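sry for the spam today, last one i promise. struct tokens for design, 318 residues
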């Protein structure tokens, strides 16, 4: 009897321990399952937040690409593209050099050849130039001295070059070599060009050539009037010139090399103005759109004595 009682007691105690262990195990499992559920929920929320943040960053920050370029003296620079400026979408493989001449053609574009000249070239036989395959000319009409006084001057051969080039069958545009230090002077340069034209129609734009005088040590010439002109002022000057040209009924254009596009002109404020791009590398380095490219200053063209600047116009829709 006593052994039976002890056995029953031992059995009851064992059952009690087993039930307690099962309860603890159940609570532990419940707690573990609950934590796993919470962790899964938190991970899902974090994942959603991360996904939303990533999409937001793509939308709010357009892609900027780092790129390098060289100036005319071979100095290398590194900067970033500005996605707000229309991009250069030309295919480099379609630029074909043939001696002093250059052509471009793709499904949406064709090209034609031109020169830009000033009184420095002396007397030009424009008939020979036309016969050589040149279709247009951009002629310096005026310039501002880059010394302290900054006087405005008409190019000595501007009127003759415009008249003779048109008579030979070339399309003509003109440019002003600018040393304006403010909007007033830039507008003055535009008015001066307009007065020389005297109402003459032009097939091509009146171009603003805002020059920084660059020295071989890659610095700006301290003697030049524009050496201390800021990027913002440079851009305002270009706008003032182009506005004046538009009001007179002509098409404006801005001349710029890669150095100016990167540091001296804010092209995002001039997106409605076509660009005459200057770059003497074999292919254009600019990531930005352009209509004309001055690709050489060592061209040889019958009818022009010595070297001259060579240009290509890329024409859309042909």
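last one done:
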């Amino acid at each position: 009897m006593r052994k039976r009682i002890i056995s029953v007691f031992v059995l009851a105690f064992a059952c009690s321990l087993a039930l307690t262990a099962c309860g603890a195990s159940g609570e532990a499992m419940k707690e573990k399952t609950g934590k796993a559920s919470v962790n899964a929920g938190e991970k899902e929320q974090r994942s959603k937040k991360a996904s939303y943040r990533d999409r937001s960053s793509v939308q709010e920050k357009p892609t900027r690409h780092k790129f390098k370029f060289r100036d005319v003296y071979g100095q290398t620079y590194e900067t970033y593209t500005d996605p707000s400026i229309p991009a250069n979408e030309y295919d480099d493989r379609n630029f074909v050099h043939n001696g002093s001449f250059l052509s471009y053609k793709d499904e949406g574009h064709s090209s034609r050849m031109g020169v830009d000249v000033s009184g420095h070239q002396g007397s030009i036989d424009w008939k020979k130039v036309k016969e050589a395959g040149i279709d247009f000319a951009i002629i310096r009409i005026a310039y501002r001295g880059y010394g302290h006084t900054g006087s405005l001057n008409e190019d000595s051969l501007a009127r003759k070059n415009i008249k003779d080039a048109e008579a030979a069958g070339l399309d003509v545009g003109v440019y002003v070599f600018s040393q304006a230090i403010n909007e007033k002077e830039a507008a003055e340069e535009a008015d001066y060009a307009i007065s020389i034209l005297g109402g003459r129609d032009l097939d091509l734009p009146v171009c603003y050539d805002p020059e920084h005088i660059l020295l071989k040590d890659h610095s700006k010439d301290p003697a030049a009037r524009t050496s201390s002109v800021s990027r913002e002022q440079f851009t305002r000057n270009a706008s003032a010139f182009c506005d004046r040209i538009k009001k007179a009924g002509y098409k404006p254009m801005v001349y710029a090399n890669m150095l100016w596009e990167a540091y001296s002109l804010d092209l995002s404020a001039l997106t409605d103005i076509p660009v005459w791009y200057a770059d003497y590398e074999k292919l254009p380095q600019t990531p930005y759109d352009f209509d004309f490219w001055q690709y050489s200053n060592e061209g040889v063209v019958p009818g022009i004595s010595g070297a001259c600047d060579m240009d290509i116009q890329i024409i859309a829709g042909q």
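The first helix runs from residue 2 to 60. ok im logging off now
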